[in-house]
Structure formats: structure tokens, C-alpha cells
């Protein structure tokens, strides 16, 4: 097996679920494939616009991903080193780049501190962080810290753009618990393209609890960051976003994991922690083992679950994260083992060595999370209605207006919001709903307690057509924050609002 290290790319795109003309909880649309599975030889295949329009034939069909052939060892993002020895201070540059993603072709990309994607930032709860942000692009951008609880002026929303050549330093104290977060641009109307071309990176927060837990912690060996993104490459091997953009969410047939095409992950026969991020613009992923065997989920977007939850699959809509542990020493077979999507597409093959690693028993108690009785019985104070498709998307009947404040809330006060995904004539589609600057609790889905794997801190939640979800939410800081659909094309089309925390 060759070990061609591919550069890191964090591109966004997720499996479009428009036209889910039913009330089921499936996060994938009707699995009629728009095209036959393409040959895995020659990843510069250009999709035929006569059979699909930028990833869609209709709202009930999505293109299937080509199977990973497992010929390229997975690229692991570097851990960024602090600029100072006595404090945590990082410098993050948004840059243009060129990367040999496909064999024999050089792709023009965007990246943080490199050609594609970005490094992993490490924070500890309680410390003060300084970040120097620099825009080396030829267009405006922002630096949004997705899932991070920071003051509004540091959040990196569309109000805080940096012009080409501009620099800015932000400073904040880390007040939240251990979690896997990420960062990406958020300029109004340009987010989808900048993420698609490679602007994204991960953030790890650690705390005293995570330090004492018995879980895999060796970065790059048994603690693996995984950023999943689907893309379309043209005949020249380029990410021509304007040519393939779809107003309802841009999807592709080629999968990148940490920017690697046809990846394989070498592992030993031990427990391995996978930190999953759906970094796609619009594709949902349902992760499962091709053998059908189980694994455990230990964390959601914003922190650990109370205890490991045994699952056979986990579904993530765009921007959602989950941490899972696979015990490779306990599987029935490790030959031809892969992480696959719901339709059977091979996402990430594993190369399991015969070497037995030190045994580890995962902590049975991970966290102390709860929705309180008070939160369960609070009246709804804010109603959010999500509606529409393509350029006709809206929240509460309105499109985003940077001069309009849609809601206000008092700092440090918990309220209950109800988010409703209103069906349309086609049945509607799943909207991943994200709120900036905070983590929230899911109180109920259509009046029912959330499943065990959702009983943890969240910053993005999948809302199904016709579904009403209640969340308990508190903002620790003051400022103006966005709330929006994280289908990036919907966000750019105005499916976004603003809340001011006073």
C-alpha cells in the first residue's frame, strides 16, 4: 500500500435532504442514485450536467459518493504551536494555495496557515487565549469560531469582516468544557464558496475532566480528527464553485477526508477515538461499520455525554460533530474493514495491524449533563420558523438583514426556544440549525425526550420537515450573534437572523 500523504483540506458540503416527503426521522433522502457508481480510477471525473444539475436531478435524488480505494494514507492536521511560551497565542492566516489533491493535477485552494484546511488549535478551560487573525486573500473574509462561547465582537460573524491585508487580534477566556469545535469563514454571501475551497480547521478544548477520563488521547495514533467533505472536481482538477453551485446545497461525488482523496487510516488493535466533523456544504453522513458491528459515542458538538452510548450508526448534518470509539481488538473481523455511509459508499477504510496495543477500559462515567426540571417546564419565549428551499429560504418569513435585530435576550438568563421546520408543497427538507456564541440543550423533539446520543451540549441541531424542537439556551457573553441554517448556500441566501444579548 502506498502512503502518499495528501494535504489537508477542509471543505464544506453535505448530503442534501430536500424533498423528504415524509415525517420519518431519516436524515438521508430517498436513496435513488442520480448516477451509477463511478469508477474510482481517475478522480478528476467531471459530472455530466445532462444527467445532473450541480449534484441534483431532483429533490428526491442525490449523487452517491465514489468508494474510497484506500490507496492514500490519511493526512493528520498538525497541532498549531503557540507564538509565546508563557501564554497561548496563535496566529491564523487565511491564504491561497495550490495542492496536488488528484494524481497529476494541481488544484487551486484556500487554507489556514497553509495551502488547504488548517491546523488544530488547542485550548484549556480557564485560560486566556489571544488569536492574531490575518487576511492574505484577495477578498473579504471573517474568522468564525464555531461552537465557541465568546463575546459577540470576537465571534467572527458577517459584521466583522477583514479586508485583504487586514489584521486583527481577539482575546477571550475559555469558559466551556472539553469539546471538539471548529473554525471557518462567515462573510455575508460568500461563506459557502470560501469553505468549499478549503477554509476550515479544528479546535480542541480540554479541561480537568477530560484529563482524568480513561479514553484514547494520543493525537494522530488513537485520537484521530476526521473532517468529511464532498466535492466536485472539473476536468482540470479544479474546485470551480461557481460552475457547480446549487442554491439548495452544493454536493459532489468525490469525498475528501482531512483533504485526502481515497484515504485509508492505519490503526492498531486497540480502542481508537474518532472525532467526526461533517464539514460539507450540504451532505448528511450516516457513519457505520461495513460489518454492521457497534461502536460507542462519547461526545456531541459541545462536550461529553454522561456515559458511552452503544450505536450501530451515527448521523451528522453539516457542521455537527460526534466523538466515537471503535474497539478494533473486539471486532469479529478486521479484514476489509471500513467506515461507510448509509447507502454503502466506502468513506474510510481501516488498515488494522496485527499488533495488540495496551488495553484500555473506557470510563463509564464521562460527564454530569442534565436538562433540569425548571428548563423542561419553562414557557417558550422565542419561536423560530424555518421555511423554503433554494433562494426562497427564510426564517420567520424574513431574509437576513444586517441592520435588523430579530430577538434580544439577557446575558446569563436561560430561555426556551422552539424551532419549527415548516413543510412546503414538496414536503420540505432537513435544516441543520446553528446558533453562534453558545451551546444549548435539547429539551424535546415533538414533545419527546431526545435520544441518549443527543443528551449533551449542542450548537447545531437537525430539524426535520414538520418537526418542532425545544432547546434551553443561555448566552454567557454580550453581543450580536447569528442563528441560521448550516446548509451554507441557504445561509448565503439569507436563511439567517440575529439576536442581541444585553
From TrEMBL:
Residues 94-209, 249-330, 378-501 form the Plastocyanin-like domain. The keyword ATP-binding does not apply. Pfam families: Cu-oxidase (PF00394), Cu-oxidase_2 (PF07731), Cu-oxidase_3 (PF07732). InterPro entries: Cu-oxidase-like_N (IPR011707), Cu-oxidase_2nd (IPR001117), Cu-oxidase_C (IPR011706), Cu-oxidase_fam (IPR045087), Cu_oxidase_Cu_BS (IPR002355), Cupredoxin (IPR008972). The keyword Metal-binding applies. Keywords: Metal-binding, Oxidoreductase. Signal peptide: none annotated. Residues 22-41 have a biased composition (Polar residues). Residues 22-45 are annotated as: Disordered. PANTHER family: BILIRUBIN OXIDASE, CUPREDOXIN SUPERFAMILY PROTEIN. Belongs to the multicopper oxidase family. This is Copper oxidase. It comes from Sporosarcina ureae.
Amino acid at each position: 500500500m502506498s502512503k502518499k500523504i495528501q494535504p489537508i483540506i477542509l471543505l464544506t458540503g453535505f448530503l442534501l435532504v430536500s424533498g423528504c416527503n415524509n415525517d420519518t426521522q431519516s436524515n438521508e433522502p430517498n436513496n435513488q442514485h442520480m448516477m451509477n457508481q463511478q469508477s474510482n480510477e481517475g478522480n478528476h471525473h467531471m459530472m455530466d450536467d445532462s444527467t445532473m444539475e450541480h449534484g441534483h436531478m431532483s429533490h428526491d435524488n442525490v449523487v452517491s459518493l465514489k468508494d474510497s480505494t484506500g490507496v492514500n494514507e490519511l493526512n493528520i492536521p498538525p497541532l498549531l504551536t503557540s507564538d509565546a511560551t508563557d501564554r497561548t497565542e496563535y496566529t491564523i492566516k487565511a491564504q491561497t494555495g495550490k495542492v496536488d489533491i488528484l494524481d497529476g493535477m494541481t488544484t487551486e485552494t484556500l487554507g489556514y496557515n497553509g495551502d488547504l484546511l488548517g491546523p488544530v488549535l488547542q485550548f484549556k478551560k480557564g485560560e486566556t487565549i489571544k488569536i492574531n487573525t490575518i487576511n492574505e486573500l484577495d477578498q473579504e473574509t471573517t474568522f468564525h469560531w464555531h461552537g465557541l462561547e465568546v463575546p459577540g465582537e470576537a465571534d467572527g460573524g458577517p459584521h466583522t469582516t477583514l479586508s485583504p491585508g487586514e489584521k486583527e487580534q481577539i482575546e477571550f477566556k475559555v469558559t466551556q468544557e472539553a469539546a471538539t469545535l471548529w473554525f471557518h469563514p462567515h462573510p455575508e454571501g460568500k461563506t459557502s464558496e470560501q469553505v468549499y475551497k478549503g477554509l476550515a480547521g479544528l479546535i480542541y478544548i480540554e479541561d480537568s475532566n477530560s484529563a482524568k477520563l480513561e479514553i484514547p488521547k494520543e493525537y494522530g495514533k488513537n485520537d484521530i480528527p476526521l473532517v468529511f467533505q464532498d466535492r466536485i472536481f472539473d476536468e482540470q482538477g479544479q474546485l470551480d464553485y461557481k460552475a457547480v453551485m446549487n442554491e439548495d446545497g452544493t454536493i459532489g461525488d468525490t469525498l475528501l477526508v482531512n483533504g485526502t482523496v481515497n484515504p485509508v487510516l492505519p490503526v492498531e488493535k486497540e480502542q481508537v477515538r474518532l472525532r467526526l466533523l461533517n464539514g460539507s456544504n450540504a451532505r448528511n453522513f450516516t457513519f457505520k461499520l461495513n460489518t454492521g458491528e457497534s461502536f460507542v459515542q462519547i461526545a456531541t458538538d459541545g462536550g461529553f455525554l454522561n456515559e458511552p452510548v452503544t450505536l450501530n450508526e451515527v448521523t451528522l448534518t453539516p457542521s455537527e460533530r460526534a466523538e466515537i470509539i471503535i474497539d478494533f481488538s473486539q471486532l469479529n473481523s478486521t479484514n476489509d474493514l471500513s467506515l461507510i455511509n448509509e447507502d454503502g459508499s466506502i468513506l474510510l477504510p481501516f488498515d488494522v495491524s496485527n499488533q495488540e496495543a495496551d488495553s484500555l477500559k473506557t470510563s463509564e462515567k464521562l460527564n454530569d449533563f442534565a436538562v433540569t426540571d425548571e428548563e423542561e417546564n419553562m414557557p417558550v419565549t422565542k419561536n423560530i420558523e424555518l421555511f423554503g428551499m433554494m433562494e426562497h429560504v427564510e426564517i420567520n418569513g424574513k431574509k437576513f438583514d444586517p441592520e435588523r435585530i430579530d430577538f434580544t435576550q439577557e446575558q446569563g438568563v436561560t430561555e426556551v426556544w422552539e424551532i419549527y421546520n415548516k413543510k412546503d408543497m414538496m414536503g420540505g427538507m432537513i435544516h441543520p440549525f446553528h446558533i453562534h456564541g453558545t451551546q444549548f440543550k435539547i429539551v424535546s423533539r415533538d414533545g419527546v425526550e431526545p435520544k441518549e446520543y443527543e443528551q449533551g451540549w449542542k450548537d447545531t441541531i437537525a430539524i426535520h420537515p414538520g418537526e418542532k424542537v425545544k432547546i434551553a439556551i443561555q448566552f454567557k457573553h454580550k453581543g450580536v450573534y447569528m442563528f441560521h441554517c448550516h446548509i451554507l448556500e441557504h445561509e448565503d441566501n439569507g436563511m439567517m437572523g440575529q439576536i442581541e444579548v444585553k
